[in-house]
Amino acid sequence: MPSEKPQARYKAIAAHLQRGILDGTYPAGQPLPSEEILAKQFGVSRPTVRQGIAELRAAGLVEVMMGRGMFVRSPHARPSLTVPRGVRQADDGRYVEADGIRWDTPDEPGPVRVDATLAVAELLRIPVGDPVLFREALRMADRGRLRQLYRAYVPLSVLADGDLGERASLFPHLYETLSGLGYELHFTEYVRTRMPLPEQVAALRLPEGVPVLVVVRLTLDGAGRPLALEEFHWPGDDLELKYGLA
Amino acid sequence: MPSEKPQARYKAIAAHLQRGILDGTYPAGQPLPSEEILAKQFGVSRPTVRQGIAELRAAGLVEVMMGRGMFVRSPHARPSLTVPRGVRQADDGRYVEADGIRWDTPDEPGPVRVDATLAVAELLRIPVGDPVLFREALRMADRGRLRQLYRAYVPLSVLADGDLGERASLFPHLYETLSGLGYELHFTEYVRTRMPLPEQVAALRLPEGVPVLVVVRLTLDGAGRPLALEEFHWPGDDLELKYGLA
DNA sequence: AAGTGGTCTAGACCACAAC
DNA sequence: TTGTGGTCTAGACCACTTA
Fold first, then answer.
1. How confident is the model over B102-158, as pLDDT tens digits?
2. Does B119 contact A189 at a Cβ distance shorter than 8 Å?
3. What pLDDT sits at residue A2?
4. FRET partner for B155 with CA separation of 20 to 30 A, picked from A52, A237, B10, B181?
5. What's the N-to-C CA distance of chain A in angstroms?
6. Quick check: bond before B172 cis, omega within 30?
7. Average pLDDT over chain A, rounded to an integer
8. In this predicted structure, what is the pLDDT of residue A171?
9. Positions of strand C less than 7 angstroms from a protein CB
10. Out of B88, B194, B211, whose CB is closest to A194?
11. CB-CB under 8 Å, B191 with A211
């Protein structure tokens, strides 16, 4: 293995620190040398050191604490929370999530009527602009330590058969309501990931360099017609989703 | 909505550009103003502008092309590739992946014997340091446009009943071999996400600000004993995983 | 008070891409 | 040749944390 030196000095600094973090020279939880010290060590100015450090922060390898220093994050730790994905119908007819998490929802705005955007319309197989009921909430569990952004879209056409007063009872008992309308429910989930926008960083209390897991759940009736679309945004660090394969 | 101004100037620049990208002032694919122009516009030096831009790059909102300019990436596009996750046994007894992707594997090193690390041992429920067969490969499809990092671990104890010459035939027909040893196969998958290390960025040809989806597949026998552990690293942009819920 | 990271200036020179 | 982004300097001052 030829030790290929990156041309840019800040990349050499980043590579040095990354090597040290991965091979245990800088153990997890321990502070790294200060920017001043690194600048002298490598004979560069502080902005150059900071540019190298920025790479490690973006990769989620280090955590910087204002006024205290820069600390190594555990690189290869298993997520401490495994979230089993699934829905089962209990004996009393209620639907329960397989994850068993009890959510608090501090802000509980009722559903609002909006026009379907392109992305939503495609998945629900309705025309763009068709009316849908929309609900959005920030959910918390474990006294705010676990957070999730939740969104749900239900086409009005799905509810047309039922009383529109359903609107009140549609949430939080979405599946019971749909089931009560005579639909047989099936579920498909799509898993994506992306870097969060600043708003999501704040809402989910995400550390730097941490992506979000996005789960899109489509509820289908027996004939495969989409009934509802839900979106779950999870913090991507320290959490994994569990699926059984058929 | 109180228009809360961020204190730092570079944050104001980042917020301005982000707003413009999300509301369509700067349409996807179009170039943004040059760093020089932004510096004059905001009355700051170029490094300050670059700091603001760094935020957008880390969030995957813009793509910078050396010598050409800075371009808006589609923010809310649906992934163009949906990968159904599952394994089914064909009539002839062979196991086939539900995704239907035909992988090329340019480098095809044989499996090597290694000691189980803590993370691997925990999932396979074997003692740390126990011998496992390990294989790693970079897989490509669609003429290199789709890439995946693949790793597999099989405890030697699982193969103890069979001929150790299995080692040769263990890959790429892992499931057929296990099935031939008399095991009944069940599959569980764990989905995680994280930012890639520079090596992964290079191997998977990842754009900036794009996380990786990591799928850990555990193969279990009828009694729930772990038989094999596989790891799939997918690029997190433009790709989603699809699961059916039981 | 001392040490840390956070922000910013006003330049410089270079590499790359397009004309 | 011109315009773009990439790298880097040598400072400055500020905000925060700990002692």
1. 999 887 778 899 999 999 999 999 999 999 999 999 999 999 899 999 999 999 999
2. no
3. 41
4. A237
5. 43
6. yes
7. 91
8. 76
9. 3-12, 15-18
10. B211
11. no
Handedness of CA A56, A6, B11, B44 (dihedral sign): positive
- Residue in B119, B118, B150, B122 with CA at minimum distance from that of residue B134: B150
CA gap B166, B176 in Å, rounded: 11
pLDDT tier at A64 (50, 70, 90 boundaries)? very high
- Interval B184-227: pLDDT, tens: 999 999 999 999 988 889 899 999 999 999 999 999 999 999 99
According to DSSP, the β-strands at B131-141 and B112-115 are: antiparallel
On whether the pTM is more than 0.85, the answer is: yes
pLDDT of residue A160: 73
CA of B10 to C1' of C8 (A): 10
| Tokens 């760094």 -> residue | B54
CA distance A110 to chain B (A): 20
Tell me the C-alpha distance between B151 and B141, whole Å. Answer: 17
- Contacts of residue A160, defined as CB under 8 A and 6 or more positions apart, other chains included, come to none
B83, B85, B122, B194: best to mutate for the A interface, most A CBs within 10 A = B194
CB contact under 8 A, A191 and B86: no
CA distance A218 to B99: 19
Hey, which bits of chain B come out as E strands? 62-65, 69-72, 81-84, 87-89, 95-97, 112-115, 131-141, 146-155, 186-194, 212-220, 226-235, 239-244
- The answer to whether B243 contacts chain A (CB < 8 Å) is yes
Gap between the Cα atoms of B174 and B179, Å rounded: 9
Distance CA A124, CA A127 (A): 9
Structural contact between residues A130 and A155, judged by C-beta atoms closer than 8 angstroms: yes
The pLDDT tens digits of the residues spanning A108-154 come to 778 899 999 999 999 999 999 999 999 999 999 999 899 999 999 99
Tell me whether residues B242 and A79 touch, CB distance under 8 A.
no
Residues of A in contact with B191 (CB under 8 A): 191, 213, 240-243
- Mean pLDDT of the region B159-175: 70
| DSSP per-residue codes, chain A | ------SSHHHHHHHHHHHHHHTTSS-TTPBPPPHHHHHHHHT--HHHHHHHHHHHHHTT-EEEETTTEEEEPPSSPPPSEEEE--EEE-TTS-EEETT----B-SS-PPPEEEEPPHHHHHHHT--TT-EEEEEEEEEEETTTTEEEEEEEEEEHHHHTTS-TTHHHHTTT-HHHHHHHTTPPPEEEEEEEEEPPPHHHHHHHTPPTT--EEEEEEEEE-TTS-EEEEEEEEEESSSEEEEEE--
Which residues neighbour A74 within 8 Å (Cβ) at sequence distance 6 or greater? Answer: A28, A29
